Amino acid sequence: MADLFAGLEPDTPPPLPLDAPLADRLRPRALADVVGQAHLTGAAGAIGRMVAAGRLSSMILWGPPGTGKTTIARLLADAVGLRFAPISAVFSGVADLKKVFAEARDHARMGKRTLLFVDEIHRFNRAQQDGFLPYVEDGTVTLVGATTENPSFELNAALLSRAQVLILHRLGSEALEQLIARAEAEVGRDVPLDAAARDALIASADGDGRFLLNQVETLFSVALDQPLDPAGLSSFLQRRVAVYDKDREGHYNLISALHKSIRGSDANAALYYLARMLTAGEEPLYLLRRLTRAAVEDVGLADPQALQQCLAAKDAYDFLGSPEGELAIAQACVYLATAPKSNAVYAAQKAAWRSARETGSLMPPANILNAPTRLMRDIGYGKGYEYDHDVEGAFSGANYWPDDLSPQRFYEPSERGFEKRIAERMAWWDERRHAQTPRD
User: Fold this and answer.
1) Residue of 148, 141, 168 whose CA lies nearest to 45
2) Distance between CA atoms of residues 220 and 209, nearest Å
3) Count of CB atoms within 10 A of residue 394's CB?
4) For the chain, first and last CA: distance in Å?
5) Residue 181, pLDDT above cutoff 90
6) Structural Rg of the chain based on CA atoms
7) What's the whole-model pTM score?
8) Helix H or strand E encompassing 118
9) What pLDDT is attached to residue 393?
10) Listed residue (393, 380, 389) closest to 435, CA to CA
11) Is the confidence at residue 4, as pLDDT, over 50?
12) SS3 375
């Protein structure tokens, strides 16, 4: 029977060679050694409770790169005595999945259950994701998927209904400091950095433990006469590029944060999110479109110049390009954040559109209809129309609403900025309109 499993992956990985990467040598041997995820791995966490019960449910581990998703999956298998079978959605196809499921069934017959770890599970298409369902349902595998993307957008609802989504946090400075200390203990000497450079190294990792350990390993690999300061560290190591995919959740999170910071009149927060997106490679014209949307949605007629500022910034960027033209984008961003706010036009548009859909076939009143033919004049088109410019104050107070629709109030100007003047003007018109003597 032993031949049945010849060539299949063993339950535990082989010993690491002495020259293995530092990140692999420091990989935790127990769940208690995992840093930064105690909310999951601790006794009160979801994973801690499952391990204590000796029974795992299928799960999706969602978190940024370098936060321990693969490590946790392997340790889970060891903790409850499951065979660990890892695959990557980046390099695997249908044939690979069939092989994995067949091997899992063979092991199940021998009494050995399988934990199937699928890295980058969001890379599988919808049909491939559906292929997991029967094997998860019949217990052939306990599925542990890892993803950096929001599962609610990237994974099938049917698959999500059969798995818990557990969120891993980006590693904080305390957790990253623990990793450096472990690396120093493994190598037997301190990282050649002064205190300020050590803090800069931790900040540069952006919560990614694997990236941090790779940087530490690079520092250990060279002989330095004296510890590096922040400037020396910056010139010695590559700068980390922020995790940012233009068509993924990070993109939508940042643009939402930018828009809401503008709406909330926090110019500094708005500049921060604008900088996050621009330095990560976002298309400047996309940001200009979103700023223009904020100008008409959230500033509106409280400051009519807001729209002009955004259009001028677009022209300036077209003329100057990057990076000089990005200053014009920043100026428009600050202008919007510091402008008086009103969504009155935005709310009026939605209300008017709704009314138009509900009453879209009503005829305007006859007095404001053009009458280019005798027939139209004979049936009353244009009869009684008053040309407002010929009336005192250029305001006739005539009715412009369909006969079967009472006058509606869509636009309610705020008392902020320029809209305060608009509100005064509309109130004056309303007063004159209501004072008019009904005409025959």
Assistant:
1) 168
2) 16
3) 9
4) 104
5) yes
6) 33
7) 0.64
8) strand 114-119
9) 86
10) 393
11) no
12) helix
Best CA proximity match to 369, nearest among 380, 359, 354: 380
Cβ pair 417, 265 in contact under 8 A: no
3-state DSSP assignment of residue 45: coil
Tokens of 296: 């008409």
Q: Three-state DSSP class for 134? A: helix
**Which residues, other chains included, contact 4 with Cβ-Cβ below 8 Å and sequence gap of 6+?**
106
Cβ neighbours, 10 Å, residue 43: 10
User: Quick check: 190 and 197 in contact, CB under 8 A?
Assistant: no
DSSP assignments along 266-299, one per residue: -HHHHHHHHHHHHHTT--HHHHHHHHHHHIIIII
| β-strand pairing of 164-167 with 141-147 | unpaired
Show the CA angle centred on residue 381, arms to residues 379 and 382, nearest 5°.
Answer: 140
What proportion of the chain, given as a percentage, has pLDDT over 70? 92
* Bridge partner list, 143: 116
CA distances from 2 to 98, 100, 106, 110 (A): 21, 18, 12, 10
What one-letter code names the amino acid at 254?
L
Structural tokens at position 3 = 């031949």
